[in-house]
Amino acid sequence: MFYYPSPAVSELEHILTDNWGAYASNFSTAITPCDNYVTEVGEPAINSRRTTSAQWLRVAFHDFATADVAAGTGGVDASIGFETARDENSGTAFNDSFTFWQPFVNEFVPMADLLAIGTVMSVHLCGGKYIPYSPGRVDATVEGTFGVPEPSTSLEETLAQFEQTGFNQSDAIALTACGHTIGSVHAGGFPEVLEQDHITPNNTNGAVNLDSTRAVFDQAVVHEYIDWTGQKGGPLVTSFNESSRSDLRLYESDGNKTMMDLYASGDGFQDTCVGLLQRMLNTVPSGVELQPAISPALIKPINVTWDVTAEQQLVLSGKIRMLHTGEIPSDPVSVTFSNGYTESLVPEEGLGTSAFKLTDAQTNATTQYFAFSIPGSNLSGSTSFTVAAEGFEAQDFEIQDAAFILPSLSSVDVTAGTVSITLAARSDASDFDPSQLSIEVATPVLQPLTLTPKIVRTAVQLAEVESPVTGIGYWSGSAAIEPPTGAVSVTLLSSGKVIDTLLLDAGVAGW
Ligand code: HEM
């Protein structure tokens, strides 16, 4: 299968862009609407008064908070998964979030990148702006240091801890206000902050919101604190227990200057939060190199793959996703292959909606899909295809047909604990030697002490089998794997170079 521009970016771009409607990513649905609690359903979810979008933001803060930028350790590396039993990480947010993210982890997408994208999504879908999202984080294999500030932590210690992460006093105040604009403090987990009588049948964890708009990423927390209205800055300002008023201590520590500045900055609050949260998410251990930020693709081929049909016909199939701003045309989209073959594709009926607004438009962008399925006989010799449509700059995408994994003949059998692969390779091309092909499989599996899967790599021995297609040989093999937690990735190499990839059993993380 061809993933454009790479499996990692293709998957993460899907999460970022396909938010609602047709082909919405299962990631977005967890925080739609923004006060949703994905871990439970129905009445228990509503009465829990927990908020998944807020949990994701809090998890990212706790993972980041123990960074030591001078030493080059800690930061966003999903080490928090090993640290959930600590007092400083009280609450269900960590295990709830990791349980939700677990099926999305695979060879190309580490938990730490999901943890970061969780914050990007919560902010972008729930009233804030897009935090430019760069992938490339690396999952920790052991726990990190202690040091997440708690409600009882002194001001001096709190500021020193923020300083260690590279955030000065006013950064620390603003970042905390950006965090505490969504979600709640729960009396159940924080009896030192809130009285237990907040716990009722309709509020089973005793949630008290941090501002009056619990699921909206807005400036309300700042206004309510300064104006002393609504939630007055939240329970960490107003707690009955003076030593638990950590937000009050922090906000007052510069004479409320930072909070007053945020108050006066209007929409500037959103830009301040984007800047600080981006810095937070991009704080990674030394040696980890983040990739360029991902932007939504205007033209995106999806699930493009060679396969052999039941009638033994070689076919290239897939879809093209177009991202529109403003009115949605009903015009066809043309796909022209490098051998000259062209098809005109008609749009599918269902449209999707993205949180992105393109080219300063006022409305959210819309996704439109165009499916194709083209016999290989029309495409012989093609090495790329060009997608062209009215109002879009045409774009080229590479393909190759020297050798490829056959999706319909490759599968994971969880009960048997095996993965079976069949690949097809040209046996009639003089410049291609099928004996140089090899297959590697990477399986995400459970590991002790954290909900982050680890990736186990396995080689698959191949043997030639009978092929029903002239000019094409089939090679097959299988290998034992542990039960996968997410997509099993299959990589086809020719003389050590990757020429095809297939994510098997992507489940909720798929299209
Ligand atoms: C001095 C620093 C901070 C302290 C002591 C602190 C403490 C707390 C506490 C005790 C809760 C209640 C958790 C619960 O009951 O589930 C909470 C909630 C939250 N915190 Fe912080 N926090 C701090 C800074 C931050 C920062 C910098 C962010 C993000 C950038 C953040 C994001 C959140 C969010 C989103 C929630 C709501 C969670 C939910 O509704 O489940 N916090 N914080």
UniProtKB/TrEMBL annotation:
Keywords, sorted A to Z: Oxidoreductase, Peroxidase
Lineage: superkingdom: Eukaryota
Name of this protein: Heme peroxidase
